[in-house]
Amino acid sequence: MADPIQKLKNDIALNNVVIFIGSGVSIYTANDEQKVSDWKGLLKHGLQQCYHSGWMSDEEFEDFHTKFNSSTAEVDDYLLAADQIKAYFQMENDKINNDLYKTWLRETVGNLSAKRLDLVKSIGELGCLILTTNYDSLLEDVLGKKSLRWNEYYSNGIDDSLENLKDYILHVYGHFEDIDSIIFSSHDYYRLFENGSRQSKLREIMETKTLLFIGYDVGIFDLNFYSLLKWISFVTDDKPSSMYKLVKSNKYNMFHQISDTSFLENIKEVPYGNNAEDLLEFLKNLKSFTPLIRENLLLTEKKEFVRKKYLNYLINEYAHVSIIGYSNTNMSLPLESVYVELKFDPTHPSIRAMKMLEITEEFKRKLFSPGFFNEHERQQLNRAIIEKNAFNSEMYCRDFMIDQWLNVLLSNKNIFTDNEANAIKTKVNRLKQNILEQNNFKEARQYQIQQAYNDLKHFIVLGHPGSGKTTLSKWLVINMAKQCLGKKNMLFDHIYSRKEKIPILIPIWKYVDQIKENHNENKSTLLQFIYENPTFDSTFFNNEERIELSFLMKESLVEGNVLVIFEGLDEVPIHVDRSDLIKEINTLLERGIDYDVIHNKLIYSIYEQKEIHNTRDPTIGNRFIITSRIEGNYFEDINFFYSKINY
Known about the structure:
Elements: H1 2-13, E1 17-21, H2 23-29, H3 39-52, H4 58-68, H5 75-96, H6 100-108, H7 118-124, E2 129-132, H8 138-143, E3 146-149, H9 150-155, H10 162-165, E4 168-171, H11 186-191, H12 200-208, E5 210-214, H13 223-235, E6 243-247, E7 267-271, H14 276-286, H15 290-297, H16 300-318, E8 320-323, E9 331-334, E10 341-344, H17 349-367, H18 375-388, H19 396-399, H20 403-410, H21 418-438, E11 445-448, H22 449-455, E12 459-463, H23 469-484, E13 502-507, H24 508-518, H25 526-532, H26 543-558, E14 562-567, H27 578-590, E15 591-596, E16 601-608, E17 623-629, E18 643-646
Parallel strand pairs: 1-2, 1-5, 2-4, 3-4, 5-6, 6-7, 12-17, 12-18, 13-14, 14-17
Antiparallel strand pairs: 8-9, 10-11, 15-16
Helix pairs in contact: 1-15, 3-4, 3-5, 7-14, 16-23, 16-26, 17-21, 20-21
């Protein structure tokens, strides 16, 4: 998931991220020794307190205890438990004129102590504004910040500049020291949605900053997280900025236990690994772009001069085509006079694979949509999956499309009657049939390069010798350069499109040559070669400008704002082992980019994405186009999901 990670790094470097902290952080920081560090654990403790104090009957306590220790508890059960706990405390308060509810929170949440500090410190080092749904003071204790309750923030006229707010931990669900601020029962949750005008102070932050959620992947369902998202949707009038949730790589989402989930579709889940150590390394990695981008912000004027000079250089360098041997004198024609049609071949295996990814995603989205399964069916399917113990987070959505697997799941007579199993099977099969019918593969058709560029993020242009692949590469470069300069061009309909990328044309044989010359001593990676050689030492630039241009390219690659065209894959000498080159190309495609501060160079991220989703948001992130002859199958080992277009 290279693009979301790259966007997070950029936004953190640009001071454009707000972090929400959930109970998972408190659980880790308290070393999981104190069982009240998450909301469910606090509820269990409250139920036991009410029961042992003689306020709650055996039957009522046993009912809650059974549900909470099984997979049958639903949203209303948790809220009912919270309501009962608070009600029992308040009844006793009235009898003895003492606030037992406040005392209970202080003796539980208030007594949490930080045992492991590294996770909170790593979050603090990101330098972002921090909000939390936790009631405790663990963040303040470790980071040395002040507590700020939501009701205090709304009413006390605190300076709400971003830099000032960074001195605080803003508790959106309250803090144990202020009992009136605590959001605990169902009535308390309703208070979140009162006085919308008072919450306008947060609206600008929510609408303009990227929201990052950490510590909200501790269980199958997190009511605090669900309610938090509803509150964010309310505050922003359903227009929040980008939202990312860090989750375990082996995490899976079971069927939602809630009916209203439309706002959940706006969240992108970003896997960080399988354990706390992976999360710590991931958080450290998130700030890798910060030194590079913040240093470059200080060089804006000089950077803009070099950028414009480079783009004009590309236009002048590739704007004409020389025709040699046609007459006694060489002819030079404007390159843009060449118009090229492309033949799109949807029968190629890579196109079919990509299409199946889209179909699977659509199937998953509709399968989980509110109302597809009723509440009873969702509970049955959750139970059947758990009992079968055959749940695979990577495969199960796709497996629902396989009749044999679905039949095995529905064959559990202890859960499904024949009528219930048939009803679910009919729903799933009807959905599958509708999606497959709507996604029939079309016949090959002619279309222009503009359409290919808008539809596919990465692709290979294949053609016979002399078919014009190099000319097409130059055409793309000069038109993209014009777009970056705000000039009229043939690639985009208007010059104000936000799809422009700084173009770089790399004859791939030149990279192979430097490998051969340098052997293993000073060999550059393909990634380094891109930003070190945008002009191949053209005399159009002096040494200082070359350094500035290389720095600009590094920053642009980090920000995902580069179009790289690798020209002539087939021109790599036949005696050269192409396997290493193909591995480098695949690494460039499948991994994100990190900045090595110590050695001042870009490196490949450790986070991998084998499946390149070419048709999903093709304008996001760096883009790579390769040209090659069809003969020789030079391209066959490049990532399977990389589109091939016949020319």
